[in-house]
Amino acid sequence: MRVIAGGMATGSNPPREATMRITDALHRAARALRATLDRFRRRSVAWMAAGLGFAACDRPSQRLEMTPPIVAPAPAVAARVLPAPTPAEAPIGRFQMTFYFIIHEAEMGSAPAANDNGRDAADTDDVALAAGAPVAAPAAPTLIPLNDQACVPLAHVTPAFAAQVAMQGTGRLRDGRLVNVASRCACGRRCFHIVPASKAWGTGGSGRALVPYRSVAVDPKVVKMGSMLYIPALDGLRMPGPAGVGGFVHDGCVVAVDTGGGIDGKQLDLFVGRRAYYKALARRGGSHSWSKSVEVWSGAGRCTQKGGGVRRSAAGSI
């Protein structure tokens, strides 16, 4: 006979029911401990999230998600706007580039000028690089008339000066008046007209004012008057002369505003303003051979005109 005391049978192994009760008690204690640890862990995470900018969410499923930190917007930075690529300019061909300028009567020496429109001929005239007293005339000068379009003399000048002003197209008389070759003469001879003071450098065959280093004379059969041209040989060269006339680095842009009797075919005459500036463009040995054959391109996509000035456009600045 077995005597059971305190739910345990003496003298034998514990019954199955007692073992199950002990196991259940242990499971309940483990679950309670796990729940306590979970609550502690959640509170710890919440405290940390509060300090670091995180927040716990989706509490029913006990999932935690990171809230993106608040970041002040970066200051706006102006984007650099680059000019549009330069359109492909059309090459016109290789040209012989010569030079022309205003011939000053006061700068003419006694010897006749041999300068051939800037074409590397002997240049024996004295050149005044700055304003000075006029060169004294010979004791018995030989003078010829410089006629206007009605064949009325504007002035009497030396044959050397008359030849040079006819060749260059523009000349300044001793009295300061600027004369330009006229297109039509009543008597069929070479004649001139007085240039308005507003056009300090004279006018081209198109009637437009000449601008040193920007105006060129062309053959209209080859280059249309008013065309913008780009000459790579000029691009990057510093132009002679004081500020306002020279002293700048050329960008290669010029405009066709003039013609000339000596311009035929692929020839181009660059207006440089003064004979001294023409000389300053010479290279070693006083040679202008660098200009004997230069590439000429259409400047329609690279050059622009504004307010009478010619310059490289924004599209051509890359």
Protein model, in words:
- By secondary structure, the protein is α+β, with helices and mostly antiparallel strands.
- 17% of the residues lie in helices and 23% in strands.
- It contains three helices and 18 strands.
- The strands form six sheets. A six-stranded mixed beta barrel has the order 5-15-12-14-13-16. The chain has a four-stranded mixed beta sheet with strand order 6-9-10-11. The chain has a two-stranded antiparallel ribbon with strand order 1-2.
- The protein is rod-shaped.
- The N and C termini lie far apart (114 Å).
- Residues 1-12, 53-64 and 110-133 have low confidence and may be disordered.
Which structural traits does this protein have?
318 residues, disordered N terminus, 3 helices, single chain, alpha+beta, 6-stranded mixed beta barrel, 23% strand
Sequence-ordered SSE layout with sheet pairings:
Elements: E1 4-5, E2 8-9, H1 16-52, E3 55-56, E4 64-65, E5 91-101, E6 103-104, E7 144-147, E8 153-157, H2 159-168, E9 170-172, E10 178-181, E11 192-194, E12 215-218, E13 228-230, E14 253-258, E15 267-273, H3 275-280, E16 294-298, E17 303-306, E18 309-312
Parallel strand pairs: 5-15, 6-9, 12-14
Antiparallel strand pairs: 1-2, 3-4, 5-16, 7-8, 9-10, 10-11, 12-15, 13-14, 13-16, 17-18
